Amino acid sequence: MGSYSSLGDVSGKRVLVRSDLNVPLDGTTITDDGRIRASVPTIRELAEAGARVVVTAHLGRPKGAPEDRYSLRPVAARLGELLGQDVAFATDTVGESAQATVAGLADGQVAVLENVRFNPGETSKDDAERAEFADQLAALADAFVSDGFGVVHRKQASVYDVAQRLPHAMGQLVSTEIGVLRRLTEEPERPYVVVLGGSKVSDKLGVIDNLLGKADKLLIGGGMVFTFLKAQGHEVGKSLLEDDQLDVCRAYLERAQQTGVEILLPTDIVVDTAFPSGDREPEPRVVPAGEIPADALGLDIGPESGTAFAAALADARTVFWNGPMGVFEVDAFAAGTRAVAEALTKVDGLSVVGGGDSAAAVRTLGFDEAAFGHISTGGGASLEYLEGKTLPGIQVLED
């Protein structure tokens, strides 16, 4: 058995597995099944060991009540295809359907419960309400395996409270993710380069703050770069800007200079006069980073910057990348993200794609996932770990 061998012989036992099956849907069509595929190894190993596997997960952000658009039914069907066996589906979380579905499982069979967030107890801030729901979930199982890394930073019933009620262990996915993150934070091999993108500086404050003391280089792109450029005195036109973070960015730039950490910002930017939409053709042009016109907004790092970022990654032994360099979903603004991804495939050492939009970009742009050292399934959880925060869903497993 994998990292859950502490549970002993699971044959004939009902094992509740908290997976992360929060995949993008177009109606009922799954547009990226990466998280489902990442969940398969733990589920398959438990089933092959004779467990009666009960999978619980969420999809989207329903408000504690059923919504058809957030049903896990299409996810259960895809999981069955990947496992090569029929997967039973319960139409509720802990009610009559869930109880009957679990009771009907034979050794080695798998069931998926309906979206756990359809029950208000899952995400409740009220400990008693969350505990009541956790009691109902725990009643469906004999043991618990936490394998949804994308939610371990949440103190939620199916992540935290259930683990207090059942014999518990980490699944393969969570165990692997934590192992990789420890390599990033505990004596990483050097040079250690961190690439940060995405839309907002405020989303990455804790990571920048913590990694300024650990990384050798920090490469910054995406929408967040314009707050840094503005902090340096440059005009950024209509680009995304967080005025309330300008002083913070200036402080980071000064601190990096004092501590010898190199912060690399783009020297050129791909701009357009409007954000890409379906009713107009993009009109991209490249301008110097310090000369963004008043009527334009930055939508990608420029080709010169893409080359510079790739060069900065060339001798790295450890790389963590979180956040695209631009609006990668549109070809006209995807080159910067593609350049970073391409450079990561050539890293002689550990290259980590930090989940979320970065993982989506790798798949959207057609890269072979095997070319990267590790593609995380949990953007928010990865970031909070790298900030130095305690993750409730991990802490409860280790207590």
TrEMBL record:
| Chief site of localization | cytoplasm
**What domain of life does the UniProt record list for this protein's source?**
Bacteria
- Residue ranges crossing the lipid bilayer per the database entry: none
Q: Which PROSITE patterns match?
A: PGLYCERATE_KINASE
Q: Where in the cell is it found?
A: Cytoplasm
Q: Which Pfam families match?
A: PGK
Which positions bind substrate? 20-22, 35, 58-61, 117, 154
Reactions listed under catalytic activity: (2R)-3-phosphoglycerate + ATP = (2R)-3-phospho-glyceroyl phosphate + ADP
| Residues the entry annotates as binding ATP | 204, 298, 329, 355-358
Specify the pathway.
Carbohydrate degradation; glycolysis; pyruvate from D-glyceraldehyde 3-phosphate: step 2/5
EC assignment: the record states 2.7.2.3
MF terms from GO for this chain are:
kinase activity
Q: What keywords are annotated for this sequence in UniProt?
A: ATP-binding, Cytoplasm, Glycolysis, Kinase, Nucleotide-binding, Transferase
The UniProt entry's sequence similarity note says: Belongs to the phosphoglycerate kinase family.
Q: Report the PANTHER family cross-referenced here.
A: PHOSPHOGLYCERATE KINASE, PHOSPHOGLYCERATE KINASE 1, CHLOROPLASTIC-RELATED
How is the subunit organization of this protein annotated in UniProt? Monomer.
Task: Please give the name of this protein.
Answer: Phosphoglycerate kinase
